Amino acid sequence: xxxxxxxxxxxxxxxxxxxxxxxxxxxxxxxxxxxxxxxxxxxxxxxxxxxxxxxxxxxxxxxxxxxxxxxxxxxxxxxxxxxxxxxxxxxxxxxxxxxxxxxxxxxxxxxxxxxxxxxxxxxxxxxxxxxxxxxxxxxxxxxxxxxxxxxxxxxxxxxxxxxxxxxxxxxxxxxxxxxxxxxxxxxxxxxxxxxxxxxxxxxxxxxxxxxxxxxxxxxxxxxxxxxxxxxxxxxxxxxxxxxxxxxxxxxxxxxxxxxxxxxxxx
Length: 266
Known about the structure:
Low-confidence stretches: 261-266
Oligomer: single chain
Order of helices and strands: HHHHEEHHHHHEEHH
Number of strands: 4
Largest sheet: 2 strands, antiparallel
Distance between the termini: 23 Å
Mean pLDDT: 82
Strand order of the largest sheet: 1-2
Strand content: under 5%
Helix content: 55-70%
Shape: elongated
C-alpha cells in the first residue's frame, strides 16, 4: 500500500471516529443529567469510552496528517491493546453465556428460568446483595410488571401471552407454586403452595415486592443479560475485524512515515 493511500485512509478513518467519540461523550453527558439512577450508573463508562476513542483517533489523525512516526507507534500500540481487550472480552462473554436456557411449562407459551442453570459468574454477581439491590430498584422503576394489566386486559389474554424472561421471573410466582392467577398482576395467595420452592413464600402481590427477591427473578435477569452479552459479543467480533483492518493500514502508514523520515535525514 502506497504512502499517500495509507495515510489518507488513516486520516479519514480517524476523523470519522473522532466525530463518533464526540457523539459518545455528548450521550454520556446527557445520561448524567437523567434522573434515572440506573442510567446514571452507566455515565462514567460511556464518558470514559468516548474520551479514550477520541484520544486514540486524535493521535492517529495527527500521526497520519504530519507523517509523525512516533505518534503512529503510540496509535498502533493503543489500538493493539484495544484489539487484545476486545478479543479477551469476546471469548469470556461466549464462555459465560454458554450455560442457561428456559424450561417449557405445560399450558404456558413462555418459558421459566432457573438460576442454577447459569454460569457461576452470573450467579455470583446476582447473589451479591449490593448488586441485586441496585438491579431490583431498576426493575421496580422500569414498571415492567405494572404494564402487564394494561397489555393483557383479561385472564385469558394473560395466560396466552408470551412473557419476557424478566416478566416471567419477576412479575409472577413460579408455576410450581400453584397459585391461581386472578389477573395479570394479582394471584390468590390464600392457596397453599404445592411446592417447597422458597420463591413461593417470597412472592407478594405488592407492586414494590412481586417476586423481585426470588431466584426466578434473578434467573430471568440472567437470561436477559445472556442475550445482551451475546449481541455484544457478536458486535465485538465485527468490531475486531474492522479494527484489525485499521491496524493493518496503520502499520503501513507508520512504516511509510518512518521511511519518509529516514529519507529526509539522508
